[in-house]
Amino acid sequence: MKISYWIDYNCPYCYLGITRLNNAINKLKLEDVKIDTHAFELDPNAPKTCQNTTLERFSKKYNMTKEDAQKEIDKITKWGTDDGLNMKYESCRFTNTRDAHRLAKLAIQSNNQEIISEFNNALFEAYFSENLELADKETLKDLATKAGLNKKDVIEVLDSNKFDKEVELDERVALDTGIQGVPYFIFNNKYPIPGVLPESEFVNVLKKIKFEEEFAEKINSKQNK
Predict the structure, then answer these.
(1) How far is the C-alpha of 114 from the C-alpha of 210, rounded, in Å?
(2) pTM surpassing 0.90?
(3) Which of 20, 65, 102, 158 has an alpha carbon 20 to 30 Å from 167's alpha carbon atom?
(4) Residue 191: its H or E element
């Protein structure tokens, strides 16, 4: 089974989405699952250092009063907590994520699913639980090497524009596909799911696709006899 998904590492819905998807995969004990991560910068022009609080940014972005914005932030935080995440959304330090996405491409190049998953999770945890700035190169270097990436390779990426084109290609594909927000999942190249589903619904989607795969295998097996 192949699952492609577009994310940004400072998006709480992306963190919730991939957490619930992984929980569903583990619940069904699916082993032959390949997850392809694709970049989608929510704000390509975001600053390299944090300029304002989550409350200020949220209020301005969605044209809300600070009271209404605070309610939304609290709601998102509760969703994360209910899913077992240490979600400190109110104190997140929003910055540019281009370098994080470029390093994610380095992880993908390793062709090691464990490293890819470890680094993606580390980025989400760093932002939402530790409230670190994802544009900080020392932070990224530390997260990447702890996830298993070669330190020399990590430094080479951070000191260059390597993988810029790959990130931009992801975003062009998203645009051509009609993707306007994240998270956005595509299962087996034919079942698109925009946004976040409850874990139970992810389980149902995975069951359906698994059934289709097993049915197709049986048909092929009969035809080849």
Answers:
(1) 22
(2) yes
(3) 20
(4) strand 191-194
**3-state per-residue secondary structure call for 122-142:** HHHHHHHCCCCCCCCHHHHHH
Helix axes 137-146, 113-128, angle to 10 degrees: 140
Average pLDDT over residues 10-16: 97
Confidence of residue 221 (pLDDT cuts 50, 70, 90): low
Q: Using alpha carbons, list the distances in angstroms from residue 171 to 37, 106, 161.
A: 12, 17, 16
Count of CA atoms in the C-beta half-sphere (13 A) of 116: 14
Size of the chain in residues: 225
3-state DSSP assignment of residue 22:
helix
CB contact at 8 A, 115 and 147: yes
13 pLDDT higher than 70 = yes
Write down the mean pLDDT value for the chain: 94
